[in-house]
From TrEMBL:
The lineage of its organism: Bacteria, Pseudomonadati, Pseudomonadota, Gammaproteobacteria, Lysobacterales. GO terms for molecular function: fructose 1,6-bisphosphate 1-phosphatase activity; magnesium ion binding. Its EC number is 3.1.3.11. It is an enzyme of class 3 (hydrolase). This is Fructose-1,6-bisphosphatase class 1. GO terms for cellular component: cytosol. SUPFAM superfamilies: Carbohydrate phosphatase (SSF56655).
Length: 336
């Protein structure tokens, strides 16, 4: 039987009336860009692409060469893609409208071109995260940052491509979350995990414990009880994983469950956490909720948030439904 490729999956979804031709083609353009990024990432030192680019981004972070290369690959691919009004990226201060000389469309594409890039030089999995929104009516010719400020529930597609031992693209168009593995010899993504489901309960959490002293009391109480194990309030032992690459940690959770946490910490209180709402928390939140999990700030569901600016940061608790709800219960207590 012929394998179901991502291209075939998207055509079948279009035939079933679940997406239009323009969104199908937009996702196909992102897929091809991710294949190019996978080639660049896998070359490592042989491609002269490791190390710093010598530039910084709007986040105040030093850019890796591959951050810039990946961002350029996505911008160039989508300029000719023909169905976008504008792109926005972790690596760019403001949204970039598709230039007038290129074909335009009604979608807005956001991406973190290479999330986890601090791991590149030590050969740990990294990935591209992307989110697709509709451009507000009448704004196609003059899109601005404000047009992107839509709650995550309004995403029409979201996904990531993880560059690990396998290159995999995980996608939702609002009808489940599905995993596609890159067959490098054929140059196609093949459906290998249809309808990924996150178990409701878990005994595995992911957080950077070195920030523990900076957390608010409710977070300290919650993690303290995870660490107390079966002798503690939770009555069961927990394991911990932290890859420090969101795409890799979330992929593990989509594959076997768990809870991923990047909470608010007082190291930089006005940032409200490290992760960005528009092109990290929202796309990952949609993928997780489409797989039966939950995505929360600890006090509100991420996909319901009304964004205030393009590079807004939020606390993130996502993964197994029962565990995210348990974390929310701790955060509902005033003062812990
Ligand atoms: P820390 C990578 O830089 C990233 O944005 C996410 O991919 C990852 O989950 C997090 O930051 C890691 O943060 O503080 O552990 O380095």
């Amino acid at each position: 039987m012929q394998p179901v490729t991502l291209t075939r999956y998207l055509v079948e979804e279009q035939r079933a009336g679940r997406i239009g031709a323009e969104l199908r083609q937009t996702i196909s353009v992102v897929m091809r860009a991710c294949t190019s990024i996978s080639v660049a990432v896998s070359k490592g030192a042989l491609g002269g692409v490791l190390g710093e680019a010598g530039t910084g981004n709007v986040q105040g972070e030093a850019q890796k060469k591959l951050d810039v290369i990946s961002n350029d690959i996505l911008l160039e691919a989508n300029a000719w893609g023909g169905h976008l009004a504008a792109c926005a990226s972790e690596e760019m201060d403001h949204a970039v409208p598709v230039p007038d000389e290129y074909p335009k469309g009604d979608f807005l594409l956001l991406f973190d071109p290479l999330d986890g890039s601090s791991n590149i030089d030590v050969n740990v999995s990294v990935g591209t995260i992307f989110s697709v929104l509709r451009c507000p009516e009448g704004h196609r010719e003059t899109p601005t940052d404000a047009d992107f400020l839509q709650p995550g529930r309004q995403q029409v597609a979201a996904g990531y491509c993880i560059y690990g031992p396998q290159t995999m693209l995980v996608l939702t168009i609002g009808h489940g979350t599905h995993g596609f593995t890159l067959d490098r010899e054929q140059g196609v993504f093949v459906l290998t995990q249809r309808d990924m489901r996150i178990p409701a309960s878990t005994q595995e959490f992911a957080v950077n414990m070195s920030n523990q002293r900076h957390w608010e009391p409710q977070m300290q109480a919650y993690v303290g009880d995870l660490l107390a194990g079966k002798e503690g309030a939770r009555g069961k032992d927990f394991n911990m994983r932290w890859i420090a690459s969101m795409v890799a940690d979330v992929h593990r959770i989509l594959t076997r469950g768990g809870i991923f946490i990047y909470p608010w910490d007082r190291k930089d209180p006005d940032k409200a956490g490290k992760l960005r709402l528009m092109y990290e928390a929202n796309p990952m939140g949609l993928l997780v909720e489409q797989a039966g999990g939950l995505a929360s700030t600890g006090r509100a569901r991420i996909l319901d948030l009304q964004p205030e600016h393009l590079h807004q940061r939020v606390p993130v608790f996502l993964g197994s439904k029962d565990e995210v709800e348990a974390a929310e219960a701790y955060h509902a207590k005033t003062g812990a």
